[in-house]
């Protein structure tokens, strides 16, 4: 699940701007289609710019986004007719039709975020390392360590640990974990998640098995050490005091 910002002047929920988005599990925050809206915008994995109507204004907004130096990838949402005037110098990472289906939209979102992450990795030799508590996950070599000790993980165990470590403290339901780790084409039940969590805890060892916490009747989360958790909560409190923006769950 990614956090997306949708810049639009339409007085509509995100599902009306891009219907396929409603069938995906991303968190969507709606902001006015203005460059100033980005000044106090929350962190996001990807921007969506609504270009279905005023293409001249959309072009200026796209170029402005690039001049701000943001490294967040962004997709331009347009109509089929709008494709005739869209040009590469607008600065967007990709173009998506507002009528596209959820599978195509999900692929474009993942590809854009992936390309952006790869570019950051090229600039930062340690960008592929995820450190959370005692756990270090290396996305480049598909290896993981806990307290410096290498873990012998299967591919899905690695992907599950990586995903949880990337979102410390956040609770995910079993269904969300199935979608994020196993993918939408997996037809197994949520029991699969429980089995992999049990195996992963066993490999973490008795002293670290509590890193993966169970939230009764909900799912699982990656548990941070107390000091790190205080920092995350402090950052969240700071964000909560920022000016409010319209938020829509896709």
Entry keywords:
single chain, 250 residues, alpha/beta, six-stranded mixed beta sheet, four-stranded antiparallel beta sheet, 7 helices, 13 strands, 20% strand
Mean pLDDT: 81
Strand content: 15-25%
Which class best fits the helix and strand makeup? alpha/beta
Amount of helix: 25-40%
Provide the succession of SSEs.
EHEEHEEHEEEEHEHHEEHE
Morphology call: elongated
**Computed CA radius of gyration, to the nearest angstrom:** 20 Å
Number of separate strands: 13
Please give the order of strands in the largest beta sheet.
5-4-3-1-2-13
Note poorly predicted spans: 235-250
Alpha plus pi helix count: 7
Distance linking N and C termini: 11 Å
Biggest beta sheet summary: 6 strands, mixed
Q: What is the secondary structure topology, with strand pairs?
A:
Elements: E1 3-7, H1 14-17, E2 27-31, E3 46-50, H2 55-67, E4 74-78, E5 94-97, H3 102-123, E6 129-132, E7 135-138, E8 143-146, E9 149-150, H4 155-166, E10 172-173, H5 174-182, H6 191-204, E11 212-215, E12 219-222, H7 226-240, E13 247-249
Parallel strand pairs: 1-2, 1-3, 3-4, 4-5
Antiparallel strand pairs: 2-13, 6-7, 7-8, 8-9, 10-12, 11-12
Helix pairs in contact: 4-5, 4-6
Give a brief description.
By secondary structure, the protein is of the alpha/beta class.
Describe the 3D structure.
The protein has 250 residues and is α/β, with parallel strands linked by helices. It has helices spanning 14-17, 55-67, 102-123, 155-166, 174-182, 191-204, 226-240, and strands at 3-7, 27-31, 46-50, 74-78, 94-97, 129-132, 135-138, 143-146, 149-150, 172-173, 212-215, 219-222, 247-249. The strands form three sheets. It has a six-stranded mixed sheet with strand order 5-4-3-1-2-13, with helices on both faces. The termini are close together. The model is unreliable at 235-250 (pLDDT under 50).
């Amino acid at each position: 699940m990614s956090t997306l910002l949708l810049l639009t002047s339409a007085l509509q929920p995100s599902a009306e701007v891009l219907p396929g988005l409603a069938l995906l599990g991303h968190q969507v925050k709606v902001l006015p289609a203005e460059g100033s809206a980005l000044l106090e915008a929350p962190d996001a994995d990807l921007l969506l710019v609504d270009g279905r109507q005023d293409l001249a204004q959309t072009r200026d907004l796209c170029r402005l986004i690039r001049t701000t130096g943001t490294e967040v990838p962004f997709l331009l949402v347009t109509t089929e007719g709008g494709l005739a005037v869209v040009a590469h110098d607008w600065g967007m990472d990709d173009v998506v039709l507002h009528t596209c289906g959820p599978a195509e939209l999900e692929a474009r979102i993942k590809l854009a975020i992936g390309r952006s992450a790869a570019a950051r990795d090229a600039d930062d030799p340690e960008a592929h390392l995820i450190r959370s508590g005692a756990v270090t996950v290396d996305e480049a070599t598909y290896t993981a360590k806990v307290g410096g000790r290498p873990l012998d993980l299967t591919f899905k165990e690695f992907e599950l640990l990586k995903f949880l470590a990337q979102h410390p403290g956040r609770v995910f339901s079993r269904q969300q974990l199935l979608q994020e780790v196993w993918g939408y084409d997996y037809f197994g039940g949520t029991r699969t998640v429980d089995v992999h969590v049990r195996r992963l805890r066993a490999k973490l060892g008795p002293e670290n098995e509590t890193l993966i916490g169970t939230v009764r009747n909900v799912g699982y989360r990656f548990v941070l050490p107390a000091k790190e958790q205080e920092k995350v909560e402090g950052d969240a409190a700071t964000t909560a005091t920022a000016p409010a923006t319209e938020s829509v769950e896709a």
